[in-house]
Write a structure and sequence with these properties.
five-stranded mixed sheet; D-Maltodextrin-Binding Protein, domain 2; disordered N terminus; 2 domains; alpha/beta
Length: 288
């Protein structure tokens, strides 16, 4: 009987020893993971995209052409509101702006694969986009407007009159203009084009009755084509916040961009550049 008790005690001691060893091992692993997490945090800080941009000496900016946000002048140089914004931003960072023209429909995937550091291209903040990228605070606001063909759709003056199956609306694919056309004109035929110039040409030649685009483009089209186009609505029928878009996960770069927008907005610089590009046509002879 005594022998059996001794065996039982020995078994208990053995189990306790095994448990103790396991606890110590797990504690060691925990400490190791803590060290790894700390090292990973340090690595993230060390490889911040903000630091990379400063070391590289260039800010790579993804953009696409939208008048007057970004366009080519007669010499083939990029000019426009967004070009001014990105150039000033890069200068304040002490680096050069490197523009990467990209098809708008693929600009977010291009950002996420590392082709550039940030999108500065008149991008509206939308919930579906915010699932994929981080947006800064808005640095601008825009809205949608319409230019209509005076021969194929004469005398229309409301969204309801354009929201008919016999009306064809042109817009650029992947833009908030395309979203607005589909949302506010669901009964019309919507034709989407990769390039803005294609959508513009459709309405000028009468293949489409109207174009939906960010203001002030429709107004500029009417000024340039007064015998063909007209503005059926006063002002815009949407209001959209515009922001920079950058990959998720880099809080340093996001914080810097937000601070920069706050500063130049307080200076009045953003309003001054917006007035020049959107409130005047002083730049028109540079592109015509």
């Amino acid at each position: 009987m005594k022998s059996m008790k001794m065996k039982a005690i020995a078994a208990i001691v053995l189990v306790a020893a095994i448990v103790l060893v396991a606890v110590v091992a797990l504690a060691g692993c925990g400490a190791g993971n803590g060290d790894t997490a700390e090292a990973a945090t340090t690595d993230v800080a060390r490889t911040s995209r903000l630091d990379e941009i400063v070391r590289r000496g260039t800010l790579r900016v993804g953009m696409s052409t939208f008048v007057p946000w970004a366009m080519q002048d007669k010499e083939g140089e990029l000019i426009g509101f967004e070009i001014d914004v990105a150039t000033r931003l890069a200068e304040d960072m002490g680096v050069e702006a490197e523009f990467v023209p990209t098809q708008w429909s693929g600009i977010i995937p291009a950002l996420l694969t590392g082709r550039f550091d940030v999108i500065i291209g008149g991008m509206g903040i939308r919930p579906d986009r915010a699932l994929r990228v981080n947006f800064t605070i808005p640095y601008d606001h825009t809205g949608m407007s319409i230019a209509a063909n005076s021969r194929t759709a004469p005398g229309l003056s409301s969204l309801e009159e354009f929201n008919r199956p016999e009306i064809t609306i042109a817009a650029r694919i992947g833009t908030t203009a395309a979203d607005a056309a589909q949302r506010y004109l669901p009964d019309a035929e919507i034709r989407l084009f990769e390039a803005e110039t294609q959508a513009v040409q459709e309405v000028i030649n009468g293949s489409a009755d109207a174009i939906v685009a960010s203001a002030p483009l429709p107004a500029y089209l009417v000024v340039d084509n007064p015998n063909t186009l007209y503005l059926p609505l006063e002002g815009t029928f949407t209001r959209e916040p515009i922001a920079f878009a950058l990959p998720k996960g880099d809080v340093d770069l996001l914080a810097y961009f937000n601070s920069w927008i706050t500063i130049v907005d307080a200076e009045g610089w953003l309003a001054e550049r917006k007035q020049y590009w959107f409130g005047t046509r002083d730049w028109a002879d540079r592109v015509e």
